[in-house]
């Protein structure tokens, strides 16, 4: 059984069919990338996976359970965490405070006034661990709003990781970043995938990130699956080159 099974999902906005009959399976431990030109339906597809949109047709099975009608918060509770194109952090809080919020939510402590010493120690330990995984040591007491895009993104990804997800959905993690930050973010994702054995679905425009990281790639054009395969298969796919990669080379 795959961790995620998407069966023929479609999304209609009035007359417009933004996503049409898309199916894909993601195995446990896989890093699956979704690419496609502007307007191909990537974000709409992501919104269906995370529960922000209900598919017009089709269904989604996550970890053995049909989650097509589940609201986003129920999916999160069942192990699906998502980051956004625009970083979703509390800019006026420090890195440590941001991560602490996510850890406390996960530990069910957020609304508790009294905590045992042991609970407090467990929270601190997990926060420290996430600061280290995110390579944020030395920056943990800085306000997130003052940090680089890369460190903000890393904080956001660590907040998602605090939820101990089975599946992490990353929406354009390198959006708006320069070369060095893009490289650092790709390294972070690779570490999460390899050492934390996380299953990840990634939407990204930056082809260097995609081809370096992905185990498999789904290419969308005009809302439909054009091709699916390993990075080598996609790089060699004639229809992908014509419809998408070729278009980029022409524009380059
Ligand atoms: N809420 C909405 N209402 C109506 N149309 C929408 C809505 N969201 C997206 N669309 C349309 O659906 C199509 C797919 O858009 P979507 O944002 O999913 O593409 P995308 O591949 O993520 O594009 P980009 O790479 O530019 O982010 C587009 O034609 C878009 O205008």
TrEMBL record:
SMART domains: AAA. GO terms for biological process: D-alanine transmembrane transport; L-alanine transport; L-isoleucine import across plasma membrane; L-valine import across plasma membrane. Keywords: ATP-binding, Cell membrane, Membrane, Nucleotide-binding, Transport. It comes from the Bacteria. CDD domains: ABC_Mj1267_LivG_branched (cd03219). The keyword Protein biosynthesis does not apply. Gene3D superfamilies: P-loop containing nucleotide triphosphate hydrolases. The keyword Lipid metabolism does not apply. One of its GO terms (cellular component) is plasma membrane. PROSITE patterns: ABC_TRANSPORTER_2. One of its GO terms (molecular function) is ATP hydrolysis activity. Pfam families: ABC_tran (PF00005), BCA_ABC_TP_C (PF12399). PANTHER family: AMINO ACID ABC TRANSPORTER ATP-BINDING PROTEIN, CONSERVED COMPONENT OF ABC TRANSPORTER FOR NATURAL AMINO ACIDS-RELATED. This is Amino acid/amide ABC transporter ATP-binding protein 1 (HAAT family). It comes from Paralcaligenes ureilyticus. The lineage of its organism: Bacteria, Pseudomonadati, Pseudomonadota, Betaproteobacteria, Burkholderiales.
């Amino acid at each position: 059984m795959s961790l995620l099974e998407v069966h023929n999902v479609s999304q209609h906005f009035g007359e417009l069919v933004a996503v049409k009959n898309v199916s894909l399976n993601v195995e446990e431990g896989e890093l699956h990338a979704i690419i496609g030109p502007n307007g191909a339906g990537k974000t709409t597809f992501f919104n269906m996976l995370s529960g922000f949109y209900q598919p017009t047709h089709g269904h989604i099975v996550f970890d053995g359970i049909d989650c097509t009608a589940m609201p986003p918060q129920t999916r999160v509770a069942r192990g699906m965490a998502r980051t956004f194109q625009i970083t979703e952090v509390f800019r006026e809080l420090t890195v440590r405070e941001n991560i602490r919020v996510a850890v406390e939510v996960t530990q069910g402590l957020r609304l508790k006034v009294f905590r045992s010493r042991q609970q407090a120690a467990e929270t601190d330990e997990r926060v420290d661990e996430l600061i280290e995984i995110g390579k944020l040591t030395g920056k943990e007491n800085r306000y997130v709003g003052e940090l680089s895009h890369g460190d903000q993104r890393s904080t956001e990804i660590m907040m998602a990781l605090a939820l101990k997800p089975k599946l992490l959905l990353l929406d354009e993690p390198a959006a708006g970043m320069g070369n060095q930050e893009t490289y650092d973010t790709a390294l972070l994702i690779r570490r999460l995938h390899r050492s934390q054995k996380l299953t990840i679905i990634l939407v990204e425009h930056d082809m260097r990130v995609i081809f370096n990281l992905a185990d498999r790639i789904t290419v969308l054009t005009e809302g439909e699956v054009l091709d699916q395969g390993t990075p080598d298969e996609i790089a060699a796919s004639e229809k992908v080159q014509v419809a998408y990669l070729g278009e980029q080379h022409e524009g380059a």
